[in-house]
Write a structure and sequence with these properties.
Rossmann fold; 25% strand; alpha/beta; binds zinc ion; GMP Synthetase, Chain A, domain 3; twelve-stranded mixed sheet
């Protein structure tokens, strides 16, 4: 779709949309949604089926709020179906499938929007915090970014290192990054934390610090942000995205919530009955990708919890802001209690400087272990505090042990995992 924005006026309307008034943004989104739905109901069998069953037609979409007439979608609807049922049938498309990190436990694959084939668009989606007041297609001409990511995706001005390479030889990778002289270092919070740790031990590994760090892919906790900012001497901009939808929201200079990328995404927050919740209330995150015509994701339950605020941000933008509050599936069950990882994060979040990273492991129905990497302010009293708080969460009948460790294991694809259930292992 991005490449189809041939007319200059359309392109500028697109690029500046996130800086327009809320009413104008909604009108634009309503129109784009209608076009996308029409495409999906005629060209993608899955949607044809869904919309026929729900008796909805694209002409039912008059305004953006009519989005509620459309049925929700989720990954189980896509899993197990042949590609031709879930992708467009009106045009041959390059089959560039992107595998997800499988953090919900089910490996997925998605066909990305063609927009991401444009270097400019990919930079615009991921690094818009670098933009000044004027946006031109030349905005990212001199960009230098160092990525440490799951896979490498060569682009002009970008240096890619895989997490595996970084973990095998962190100092060697930091030397390569030094030579690239990036303005931005981009990676998962847990990897940026590793970088911070290496620099804490030897600041000369990266003599010229990047101005910004860009984090994505995992929850960024306040203590991790603090540590990265301190050791890297740079400002951290967090962003939200997923394999299926790409980047969908990012922080502005206020660092208070992530602004929805209104030109490419509609984000809704719904309660358990699938009703829209009021501004500021926590619920399921549902995303519509306005750009992906290859494999449309319309009202897609992404598997995260979050809340949205429609209050105008002090930065001047009127796009809603998103705060992410955990994944559906990242929880531990003790008896009748289901504890979401966000609740465990609540235990550790004000222990900035005392705990750098942690994970909790359900060892048995009556035993939980917490492993943590201590920060400079760690004292044994912190351990007692953690035990008391966790005990309050999971009840008095579970034994809790806290262990100080120097490294935490990663999943096969390199992400850190804070919730682990070993009680089911044989
Ligand atoms: Zn803002």
């Amino acid at each position: 779709m991005f490449n189809a924005l041939r007319r200059k006026a359309d392109l500028y309307r697109f690029l500046y949309l996130h800086r327009r008034k809320a009413a104008l943004i909604e009108k634009w989104q309503g129109e784009q949604l209608r076009i996308l739905m029409a495409h999906a109901m005629y060209n993608v069998p899955l949607y044809k089926e869904l919309y026929l069953a729900a008796r909805v037609h694209f002409s039912d979409l008059q305004t953006l709020s009519d989005i509620r007439k459309l049925p929700l979608t989720h990954k189980d609807l896509f899993l197990g179906r042949p590609a031709e049922e879930i992708t467009r049938g009106d045009r041959r498309i390059p089959r560039k499938w992107k595998k997800s990190s499988g953090s919900t436990g089910k490996p997925r694959a998605a066909l990305m929007s063609s927009a991401f084939e444009s270097n400019f668009y990919a930079n615009f989606a991921c690094f818009r915090f670098l933009l000044g007041t004027v946006i031109t297609p030349r905005a990212f001409r001199d960009i230098r970014i160092a990525h440490i990511n799951l896979q490498s995706a060569p682009r002009k001005g970008h240096l890619f290192t895989t997490i595996t390479e970084f973990l095998a030889d962190p100092d060697g990778v930091l030397q390569k990054i030094t030579a690239h002289r990036p303005q931005v270092i981009a990676s998962f919070p847990s990897v940026l934390l590793e970088v911070a740790k290496r620099l804490g031990e030897n600041p000369n590994l990266l003599p010229e610090k990047p101005r910004y760090a860009s984090s994505f892919g995992e929850m960024l906790t306040p203590s991790t942000r603090h540590e990265i900012e301190e050791k890297l001497g740079c400002e951290v901009f967090d962003r939200y995205g997923a394999t299926e939808i790409g980047a969908a929201a990012s922080e502005c200079r206020q660092h208070n919530g992530m602004h929805i990328h209104s030109e490419s995404a509609i984000v809704e927050i719904l309660n358990e009955k699938n009703e829209t919740v009021p501004s500021g209330v926590r619920g399921k995150v549902v995303v519509t990708d306005l750009l992906n015509y290859n494999m449309p994701f319309i009202r897609y339950e992404i598997g995260d919890y979050g809340r949205l605020s429609y209050e105008r941000c002090p930065c001047g933008q009127e796009t809603p802001r998103l705060w992410l509050e955990g994944r559906f599936t990242a929880n531990l069950v003790f008896g009748e209690k289901v504890i979401n990882h966000i609740e465990f994060e609540g235990v550790f979040d004000d222990l900035v400087n005392a705990v750098l990273q942690y994970r909790v492991i359900k060892v048995a129905d009556d035993e939980l272990h917490a492993e943590l990497i201590p920060g400079p302010a760690y004292r044994s009293i912190v351990e007692q505090k953690i035990i008391r708080r966790v005990q309050k969460l999971i009840g008095p009948n579970v034994r809790i042990r806290v262990a100080v460790v120097h490294a935490l294991p990663r999943t096969l694809r390199g992400k850190s995992q804070i919730i682990n259930d070993h009680s089911l292992a044989v």
